[in-house]
Amino acid sequence: GPGRSAWDVKMAVALRSVSGLLRPLVPLARASCCEAGWATQLSARFSTLRLGHSVQRPALSSVWVSAPRHGCLPASQSILQSIPPLLPGLALQPTRNLTYCSLKKGKRKSVKSVVKRFLRLHCGLWLRRKSGYKKKLWKKKPARKRRLRQHVFCNRTQSKLLDKMTTSFWKRRNWFANDPYQKYHDRTNLKV
Questions:
Q1: pLDDT at 188
Q2: Residue pair 83/90 in contact by the 8 Å Cβ criterion
Q3: Is the pTM higher than 0.70?
Q4: pLDDT value at position 55?
Q5: C-beta atoms surrounding 122 within 10 Å
Q6: Pairwise CA distance, residues 105 & 112, whole Å
Q7: Over the range 5-29, which residues count as b (16 or more CB within 10 Å of their CB) and which as e?
Q8: What is the pLDDT of residue 175?
């Protein structure tokens, strides 16, 4: 109506979306409600997370939902507390395990998977293998296997990201005996 504020409309839309998420779970909740630990049973049925690994979940306190009428749900536990175990993709965000401040020395750390998979040239370019170079080789033709064995350069965005994920130790110049990449470390007659 005309007396509604913008906040009321936003709250109504948020409640509708949450109720749409919870509607398929109502029959399961009713079936096992009065048994012990119905929330853990639901999370055990739907959760893809391994037990024993703690995952931080952001609190979903911006939307309030009242408890069901039949009263089997404890007053301290809301329905929204069981949403993240049921829908792990909803609340969990992808993260890179970059350590900004280590516990022992308080220094930034490199991401080990970057150091293992990529090679940084002194000019700032990063080399990588093509993706899928060791997957399902039995069904790939020899020409495709040969193309997959090649090394390619990362683009500018990827290079910036990889520079952020490594420390200055991996950016220094190295002088290796019989280095196959020796002529590629310095870029000549090329604009950056």
A1: 81
A2: yes
A3: no
A4: 47
A5: 14
A6: 18
A7: eeeeeeeeeeeeebeeebeebeeeb
A8: 93
